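Run log, item B.
One chain of 257 residues. Sequence copied directly from the ordering sheet:
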Amino acid sequence: MIVDSHCHLLHQKNSSSINTLLRNAENKGVGKLLNISTKEDEFDKVINLSKKYDNIYCSLGVHPHESMSVNDKVLKKILELSKFRKVIGVGETGLDFYYNHSNKKSQISSFEKHIEISQETGLPLIIHMRDAEDEIFRLINKYYKKKEFKGLIHCFTGSSEIVKKLLPYNFYFSLSGIITFKNSESIRKSMKSIPVSNMLVETDSPYLAPEPMRGKVNEPSFIIHTVEYIAKMINVSTEELSKKTTQNFYKLFNKAK
């Protein structure tokens, strides 16, 4: 079985119905999916979808692009709704200093609040990181010293240096279809720093369809191409990598059953 550890099933770009997406995924061996929220008006929707389908988990958080919308009411809602049994992560949160759709101050403040919720609930933090490695590590280190917490760098595109810095904190790193792109040699090089014991896989669908599906609307079933590509890179079987990344998923997201 494969777990898609990060997808956006309710995104408007999805051209297929949820039932079709799940059927296609099942046909490719994708048994579980983590459906990610990025803003407040998605919280109830991702929870309701997880109630309807046994194989869908969900997370609650506000993406750095939306960080200027974060206030005490939103944070209280995340904290309260995180008690639901199928909410297994906090996020997607983090920092994106490439696009800067929200100002840096609001992004940092929002990220800090999400860390505190992760610490309070014990749920892993799901982190978006773009052009912000130094600041993300500074904040993780600052808060980790106060109270340990678990985390995942999703859709990893970072450096081998950030991997080495975060491994002592037992952070995990999720690889997406980007790893298959022809121009992603630097990411493939960084990926070699990630032990299989700290590796997850994801689609980030409907974005980032892997080769040979690039250019199409991504969906969870396409994760098989990413898994096959990584398995070949590190010289293990597809079955072995699927099994290990699934074990890692349940080890990190230990609220999932």
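Observations after the first pass:
- The domain at 2-55+68-252 is CATH 3.20.20.140 (TIM Barrel).
- Residues 104-121 form the longest helix (18 residues).
Flagged for discussion on Thursday.
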